[in-house]
Amino acid sequence: MTDSAHEHRDHSETYEALRHGYYQLLERIYARLLDEPENKPADRTRIAQLAEEEAASLDTEDFRHEIVEAVKDDLEHTRETLASEGETIRDTLSDWAGDVGAKLLSIADQTDVTLEQIRNEAERTHPREWIAGHVTSPKRLKCVDCGAVLHQKTFGPLPKCPECGGQSFRRA
Fold first, then answer.
1. Same domain for 111 and 35
2. 61, 101, 116, 135: which could form a disulfide with 83 (CB 3.0–4.6 Å)?
């Protein structure tokens, strides 16, 4: 087997381990949230706590930190979206999913809305950046240098911007 074939196989195995670990951790956190007593909000602190507690049970130790951070980031983004899109999503989920909808809505507990507005303002003035080469989950990002939109479709290392070679990205 050539070096290129070995490298491709190693990359595929790494990707599969990352993907498996990401979904394994996400599934365990959701299960824990669903098992918690009614009306216990899943705020930023609780999500982080669950992710850290469940991380030790992942099948892989490789990239454990990156997997945990990606899951926390994605769950926080979901919580933020639920908080900002409140009523529309609340109505849809209430009709659609019963217990699951109710648990997701607890993430956007009204006591968090004011704090969320403050965080959103901070994000607008100092937005989070993702750097090429860092492991991230699927998301749409915009190159800081040229504005090109990058669709990160899989869990894995973030590539350089295909348009300009830039290495810094923000959410699109």
1. yes
2. 116
CB atoms within 10 A of CB 149: 12
- Range 78-83, long-range pairs (CB < 8 A, 24+ positions): 78/104, 78/107, 79/42, 79/43, 79/44, 79/47, 79/107, 79/108, 79/112, 80/116, 80/119, 80/120, 82/107, 82/108, 83/107, 83/108, 83/112, 83/113, 83/116
Domain count, the chain: 2
State which residues form the domain around 165. 128-172
124 pLDDT band (50/70/90 cuts)?
Answer: low
The residue length of the chain stands at: 172
Q: Are residues 167 and 103 both part of a single domain?
A: no
Sequence-distant (≥ 6) Cβ neighbours of residue 156 within 8 angstroms: 14, 15, 18, 19, 135, 136
Predicted local distance difference test score (pLDDT) of residue 167:
94
- The residues pairing with 136 across neighbouring beta strands, listed in sequence order, are 156
Residues 29 and 50 in one domain: yes
Reported as a single tens digit per residue, the pLDDT across 127-148 is: 678 889 888 888 889 999 999 9
Banded pLDDT at 166 (limits 50, 70, 90): very high
